[in-house]
Amino acid sequence: MELRRKLEILADAAKYDASCASSGTEKRDSRQGGIGSTEGMGICHAYAPDGRCISLLKVLLTNACVFDCAYCINRATSNVARARFTVRELVELTLHFYRRNYIEGLFLSSGIIRSPDYTMEQIVEVARLLREEHGFKGYIHLKTIPDAAPELLARAGMYADRLSINIELPQDGSLKSLAPEKDAPGIRRAMARMRLRIEEAKEAKRTERRAAAPRFAPAGQSTQMIVGADAADDRAVLGTSVNLYAGYGLRRVYYSGYSPIPDASSLLPPAAPPLVREHRLYQADWLLRFYGFGLEEIMAGGEGGMLDLGIDPKLAWALKHRDRFPVDVNRAPKEMLLRVPGLGAKTVNRLLSARRHRSLRSDDLARLKLPLAKLLPFLVTADHRPRGGLLDRADLRTLVAPQTGFAAQARPRQLALL
Amino acid sequence: MSDGIGILLPGPADFGAWRLQARRLLAAGVPPERVDWRVAGESPGLFAGAPPPDAAPVTASVPRSFMEMAEIGIRHRDPERFALLYRMLWRIVQGEPQGERNLMQVATDADVVRLQGMTKAVRRDAHKMHAFLRFRAIETEAGPKYVAWFEPEHHILEAETGFFIRRFAGLRWSILTPAASAHWDGETLRMGPGGSRRDAPPEDAHEELWRAYYASIFNPARLKPAAMRAEMPVKYWKNLPEAREIPRLMAEAPRRVAEMVERGATPAAPRRQRSLHVPAQPAAPADDSSGMAPDLFSQVEDPAAALAALKAEIERRNDLPPWAAAATQIVFGEGPVGAPLLFVGEQPGDEEDLAGKPFVGPAGRLFNRAAEEAGIDRPMAYVTNAVKHFKFKPTGRRRLHQSPDAGDIAYYRPFLKREIELAGPRLVVSLGATALKSLTGKPLAITKVRGETIETPDGLRIFPTVHPSYLLRLPDADSKAREYDRFVADLKAAQREVR
């Protein structure tokens, strides 16, 4: 098969994995030989019309697969065309793309062929050739296979910046029914093993064993959860994330709204991908990680285990906790400023720093180009206090909710496809 | 500006030159409104103003954050950038009675906001250059050479060559822009004049593959062109080989999605992909939820196998306490069958849960130390927990230990009893209150029974002491040392019981 056709099949097969990050790894460059660099910050080299970043050459080594996961285009019983890169082809392709500055590196995954160990060996071999034969200093993200042998995992971690195993679905039960060959406890055990190794490598780097430190995935591990393929509600989805962040030190949980695939399984008839829901989950995930919100607080902004689709989860929380407002921008503690709808973490730090020297007024906020219409009902400044009763008005939501096309799209009825 | 002073800078982003002039102006006490900043060759017409003062440059200490931002902000194409920077410097050093030393911290100040905006724009421009610059290879006698045409918005080329040198140190490359060019021969960098797009190669053989990749990685069911344009503004498209695919991809997307929906689910492929390797099928879950599978009790002839079966039995129970589903795995006991001493802790902690082994966390390590000190051959002892899964509350990046409640203890109790029967120790050392309660069924106070052997109605000999995590929680070093010694003494006493 012609290389171009292979690339089309194997990129198409990889596109349902949302992960694209090329950030968070150690600093390296090619001044002492080889090619490539990583400087901590990820780079998106292009964006596709789906709004997704293209940072890495994201492909499968092969889309042949013996697993029969209903949500996956590559499942054993799918009718898609199958292809397979040779290890050399993929190494060359990565380097050609890299030299032309199309990509930050490679994100390699694979269908399971022959056995988990055989598949993992092939993946590791691509990374080994890039690193050892070509001195490749760019970013490598490898998908690991839960059942592969520990030595293979150790080698994968030695070459890769990031490793990931997809948790796939928020509930063990749905994995059992939709992906019969996958094993949720096995996935968690593999994540646990990776966390231990990542921490061991980090610890060794800090201490006297520095030189002997086994390199292991300096950019950590991540995972992906498909949203909308099973009946799990947002509380179940986020509850799973909370456990994953706390238990396995994941850098990121990616949420991927289940998207219709060309050759769909009868278990999952096509429907529009729940893009708005996915977006709200990402926002909630941010609140959990960077804004000091607890899971139950976030869920309190929604109804019946689902987030409010029409407004962001922080605003939703604020509208249901009006007694906590208004907050004085000149006096409130950081934790409370972080809860004001429209104030981001960076802005909060700037305000905290500025207010030590000035008393902040509304036009100070305007100068920072903050969304005043959303902000001011919740905020007291040196020259502003929300009008009496404003916070109690039943229509406050319509006053502060952004009237964007995105918000309009969020109305549940419009989610049906076409 | 009759008494104005004109400063001519040699280049549009020459921070060193600006800095030197600014220090001279400060030394001469020239206020910002009297200075007219120009760049050589940029401003045609008469250059008004007196020559700069011949003062020795002043050495003033200014906040590092100002210098860092100034060095980046000066690359902005705004013609007022030099004046803004000098005005801010003046305010920091000369303003108010003692100078506005804290100016940079006042994020809401109009000048600070403006400089912040400028540095942000420059950084974004640089980031987009790292991202959207595309090289095209040409063959030369000395081997391949990579040439790019890029149109930055600000004066960033020279500053950003470092990025491309670090990344492509071993390649020969040129970056051409309208205002300047940079050339790297694998060893040295040479800056040259600007050029035009025609100076760069018109195509590259690999662009066809790259466009094929770009088109294939796009998911037509998720069309979000506004998000794409926000991050990859249209002004860059003309120099991006893949961008020519965009109109077609967008136009075809609705039809492709409609076709997927219309086609609906497709029947399974007649010849499914086959494995050469048959993965071990996990055993079917036990239906029986009222008690233990009866066959467990018939395997007494091989206690090690029976212990393994007991572990598997717990693993596939479908009536585990609901919190157990969040644990990574079961943490079952470990040690030789027939070990004289069997230690029972409370429940696995974070590290035990990850490793799937008991007594490997902080309390376990302390226990091992104390046991060795008491003369116990640690690998020859059997260790386990009253509760076999980690009960925790997730908080951020940590899992906080939650004590098992009476129901949890009761649930695992039959399994613990069975485990002890199979392991067959001569003495069971219970560590902490949970273990003691699980073993005796009664909430006994450790302080009352510590160090005495208790015999249960079914003939089990139990020796109660504290849990090592109790030692870890003690606040001061004195009581820590005292309690540690007491703990070692208890372990010694237990050891004597079985000698």
- Total separate domains of chain B: 4
Strand share of the residues of chain B? Answer: 5-15%
Structural class of chain B: alpha/beta
Shape of chain A: globular
Q: Give the CATH level 1 class of the largest domain in chain A.
A: Alpha Beta
Residue share in helix of chain A: 25-40%
Taken from the alpha-carbon principal axes, the silhouette of chain B is: elongated
Oligomer state of the chains in this structure = heterodimer
Low-confidence stretches of chain B: 277-291
pLDDT < 50 runs, ≥5 residues of chain A: 410-418
Percent helix of chain B, as a range, is: 25-40%
Rg from Cα of chain B: 38 Å
- Could you give the distance between the termini of chain A? 36 Å
The two chains with the largest interface, and their residue counts, are: A-B, 107 and 93 residues
How would a crystallographer describe the biggest sheet of chain B? 5 strands, mixed
Can you walk me through this structure?
The complex is a heterodimer of chains A (418) and B (499). Chain A folds into 2 domains: 271 residues, TIM Barrel; 116 residues, no CATH class. The C terminus of chain A is likely disordered. Chain A is globular, with a radius of gyration of 24 Å. Chain A is of the alpha/beta class and 418 residues long. In chain A, helix 2 packs across helix 3, helix 3 runs parallel beside helix 4 and helix 7 crosses helix 8. Helix content of chain A is 39%, strand content 9%. Chain B has 499 residues and is an alpha/beta fold. Chain B folds into 4 domains: 122 residues, no CATH class; 67 residues, no CATH class; 49 residues, no CATH class; 204 residues, Uracil-DNA glycosylase-like domain (Uracil-DNA Glycosylase, subunit E). In chain B, 39% of the residues lie in helices and 13% in strands. In chain B, a hairpin with a 4-residue loop joins strand 6 and strand 7. Chain B is elongated. About 3% of the residues of chain B have low confidence. The interface between A and B is large, with 107 and 93 residues.
